[in-house]
């Protein structure tokens, strides 16, 4: 099963496998840019154009796999943890879940796609079970399914973007000292227009927040500074073909602003929870590898900070270009999490 992440600026594909020794192998990864306005706030505004981009991406990747896991933005999904009596059959669980879901979902159940999973025994009542409910408007799910179909793929899983990125980040957190046990980890994904933050401790999400700040602002600064068109600026930003004063006149001020936004987001977390520090900051997304960002975040926050590579510890297949991968790896966090769904029960 492929993992395909559809963001506001690009479509990303990841295919994982396991080798004979049960190690994860990155078989393929590829990315195709999208024009501004094709996807807005997770909504597909230009269906045919995005479908064509997805077709190009599948062809470029060289994969023959047709099953795919996709995701919706967290803003399009209502999730709720509930506690139900233990020992219920699957059918009894479904009846109970529908009954509970109707209390939390502001739409008729006929209009939503609803799913649930049993997390395990409830903490305060071990005889009961904790169940996670997820629901989204049917048209949102059908848009993703239709996109896959238009590109010759079959959607087997529709996940939530933040859950997929946490699944991929979980492997990296386990590589922290003490296997990451009890560590308070802040995961920042710097997208084109939005930077999303999740603070995680063990398997619990302590805090989530989105900020309207991202890599597109760096493109705007390049446009203003040098008079390039939007397309030229984006292309030159990706290739690194920029004037000599770019690092001092444009990049450094932007990196400082981005580090300040990250520091400010952490202050919001500290002021609204009992926590006063984070043990580790993980940076992902297209702008996270910008020169000096991790160092500036460390200076501003006094916390350890790493730019993530979601494929850390994996074998890399012959179809993957290593140099390109090292440059783009942090952008693939969500797509990697979706591809990992292949190995979940």
Describe what is shown at a glance:
The chain has helices at residues 47-61, 90-104, 138-150, 161-173, 216-226, 230-239, 246-272, 293-301, 322-328, 333-340, and strands spanning 2-6, 10-18, 24-33, 39-40, 43-44, 67-72, 77-85, 112-121, 128-137, 154-160, 184-190, 195-201, 204-211, 280-284, 304-307, 315-316. The chain is an alpha/beta fold and 345 residues long.
Strand and helix layout:
Elements: E1 2-6, E2 10-18, E3 24-33, E4 39-40, E5 43-44, H1 47-61, E6 67-72, E7 77-85, H2 90-104, E8 112-121, E9 128-137, H3 138-150, E10 154-160, H4 161-173, E11 184-190, E12 195-201, E13 204-211, H5 216-226, H6 230-239, H7 246-272, E14 280-284, H8 293-301, E15 304-307, E16 315-316, H9 322-328, H10 333-340
Parallel strand pairs: 1-6, 3-16, 6-10, 11-14, 14-15
Antiparallel strand pairs: 1-2, 2-3, 4-5, 7-9, 8-9, 11-12, 12-13
Helix pairs in contact: 1-3, 4-10, 5-6, 5-7, 7-8
GO biological process, one term: cell division
Pfam families: PilM_2
Protein name: Type IV pilus assembly protein PilM
Structure overview:
With 345 residues, the protein is α/β, with parallel strands linked by helices. Among the domains are: 77-138, Dna Ligase, domain 1 (2-Layer Sandwich), CATH 3.30.1490; 183-308, Nucleotidyltransferase, domain 5 (2-Layer Sandwich), CATH 3.30.420.40. The chain is 37% helix and 30% strand. It is built from 10 helices and 16 strands. The protein has helices at 47-61, 90-104, 138-150, 161-173, 216-226, 230-239, 246-272, 293-301, 322-328, 333-340; strands at residues 2-6, 10-18, 24-33, 39-40, 43-44, 67-72, 77-85, 112-121, 128-137, 154-160, 184-190, 195-201, 204-211, 280-284, 304-307, 315-316. The chain has a 6-stranded mixed β-sheet with strand order 10-6-1-2-3-16. A 5-stranded mixed β-sheet has the order 13-12-11-14-15, with helices on both faces. Helix 4 packs across helix 10 (333-340) and helix 5 (216-226) packs antiparallel against helix 7 (246-272). It is globular. The two termini are 13 Å apart.
